[in-house]
Amino acid sequence: MDRIRIVGGNELNGIIPISGAKNAALPLMIASLLTSDTLTLENVPHLADVELLMRILGNHGVDVAVNGRRERQEDSYSRTIHFTCRTIVDTTASYELVSKMRASFWVIGPLLAREGHCRVSLPGGCAIGTRPVDLFIEGLTALGATMEIDAGYINAKAPAGGLIGARYTFPKVSVGATHVMMMAATLARGTTVIGNAAREPEVVDLANCLNAMGAKITGAGTATITIEGVTSLSGARHRVLPDRIETGTYAMAVAMAGGDVVLENTDVALLETAVETLRRAGAEISSTNNGMRIKRNGAGIRPVDIVTDPFPGFPTDLQAQFMALMTRSSGVSHVTETIFENRFMHVQELARLGARISLSGQTAKIEGVQRLRGAPVMATDLRASVSLVIAGLAAEGETTVSRVYHLDRGFERLEEKLTRCGAIVERISE
Question: Is 209 noted as a catalytic residue in this protein?
Answer without folding.
Answer: no
